[in-house]
Structure formats: structure tokens, C-alpha cells
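Changelog entry: the ROK family protein record was regenerated in this release. Current contents:
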Amino acid sequence: MFINKHTMRLNNERSVIRHVINYGPISRSKISRDLSINKVTISSILEDLLSQQYVVEIGEGESTKNGGRKPKLIEFNKNFGYFINIEIGKNYINIMSTWANGQIARFEEISTIDKSDEQIYQIINKKINNFALKSTVHSLLGISLAVHHRVFNNVSQKPILKDIDLPKVLEKNFEVPVILLNSANAAAIFQRDFSSNNEIKNLISLTINETIDAGIIIDENLYLGNQAAAGNIADMKFLLSTDDKIVQINPIEYCSQEAILKEVYKEKGLNNLSLQQLSKLYVQGNPRVVASIKQFIQGLSLVLNNLIASYAPQIVFLDSTLIENLPLLLIQLRNNLPILQNTGTQLEISRQSTFAPLLGSYSFLMRQVFHLGTKRLRLIP
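Regenerated C-alpha cells:
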């Protein structure tokens, strides 16, 4: 296959940018050795990247055993620009601005209870302006939106806001690319790219809120399946034996956090509880709450067993406020899942669960902005 010089140069530039992001601060000679590209080509590429301010020189490294001049170190320029990353949940918006290298600059969680879709749009628009970072080379580089619905070809399965095509409107308003991503897929990307454990190549991030979704990483790549339907737990069905009959259940209606709250609300005096209040009542032994959380564990165990049997991940991360509040539920889940021992799979509470969808979306977006392909990145842990 014939590759012209321009294409080869472009591919080499992208490889160098990716390598500096992953391993910077790093010397020219180390980049040359790692990428098997001669030093003259690396120096030429870095001069171009320095002049365009993709990378910066930050000082000197250690000299070799033979002495000589200390090498100058290169790192990715965090001031090249910034990204805005937004997660839109049922009753909240999380918004974050990050420098070009993924370092968090600002974060805010905003309640949208009793807000109209038009008001939510106005809040988002205003916050994007307020979260602007000054003194960057190229200002805003892109906007990511993480949503709790299936996303295919940058289109949400369900409308984000009624009568407002949010990605299209934001793209027009701010003149930058706007990408849409399922929040569980974004969280899975976060667990892959913002981890110091390079041995984890297969993982699942299970997000449990008003719905349940799984983000799946196979051999370090995000697995979406046909029409991005992989991990859509709403499509699962289970047969469950009750006292007098066998019933078919949908996990979203049976063991999502919202489903459990609805079960508890049936008891007089227990309506409008928060998950924190629910957790306290569980510890106190409230019969209705204990029964509802037993249902939560039972249904979630079935979901996890199917996912682990299907994909055999090295680790499953659980993103659930309820489990974070009641870590003993994690022990109950582990005890319900002998398949964990059979497959060697670990089951853990998600780290940085609030930030995971935002930083995962950032990683997905910055690949597109800088044309870095789909390979795993090693970003700031």
C-alpha cells in the first residue's frame, strides 16, 4: 500500500502528540526510541508542534551516564485550549471545565428539579460562558454531553430537552464540535484512561441511577455493539419466582435506584426520601426499606451475573450512590456472585463516580479534536 509523505508526516505527528500526552514530560531521544522514528524526524516534528503550541518545553532531564548536555523535556501544553464537559441527569446537571490535558479547572453540580427544559437550556448556555478559561491559545475546543440514554451516531435515543436540539444549538452558539455520549460509556472510558493500572484491559462500568447502563471495554477498546446497543440493560428480561407465580421483570423497573425509591414510597410516611435518608433507614432496620434494598441486591445480582458471564471482564466498577452510602451492599453482591471466583473478576465501587462521566467524555472528545484515534490514553490519574 502506498502512503505519501504528507500522510506519513501527519501520522507521525499524531503519534508524537499521543506519546507526549501519555508519557510527558519526555525527552526527544526517548520519543525517538519509543516510536522507532529517527531523531531528525522527531526534532522536525517537535519544532512544528512547539511553534503551534501543542507542546511546551518545561526544563531539563537527567544527563546520560556518559555525561553531556542534559536533554530538554517536552510535555503537552495544557494551555492550548479548554473543554466544557456536561452530564445531564434526571434532576441535575454536572458541568466541568478542563484544560486541554484533562486537568480539572472548575466543577459545579446544579439541581434542575422544577426547571423547565427552556430554563435548563438557559442554565447550560450561561454556565458554558461562565466556565470559560482565560489565557489559552485557542480558547474553547469542544463541548461534550453525557446523557442517561443510548446514543448512536451522536444522536440520543430519547430527546435530551423537549423542542431543543441541544447538541445542534450549542454547536451553532459556540462554533465548536459538540459530542454526545452515553454516561456509562463515558464512565468506562474514564476507568480505562484515567488509571495508573496498565494491566486492566477488560472492564465494565455499571451506572445505576434512574436507569441502569453498562459501559464495556474489551481489549482496551470501547465496545458499542450493533447500533451502540451493547450495555443497554433496559433490553434485559429476567424470570423471577415469587411466592405464588413466576414473573418476568425488567431490571430498570425492578432494581434501579429510582425503582427502589418507588417501592419505599408505597409505605405511608416514607414518600419523597433521598437516597441518603433511605440509607439511614436501612441501617436502622426499617422493614419496608430493608425489603426494598433486598430486591435491589437480588435484581442487580442477576444483571451482574449476566454481564460477567457474557464479557468476563477483569473488573466491574459500580457507580451507585446507594452502594456508596451503604458499602456493605457491595459485600452482599460479592456473596451472591460465585461467578466472580470462576472468572477472576473483581467487583468494586467506582472511583470518582461524580467526575467519571465528565472526564470520560473529555477523553472521547479530545481524541476527535486532536485526531488521536481510539487507542488508550494515559491521562492524569
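The longest strand covers residues 92-99.
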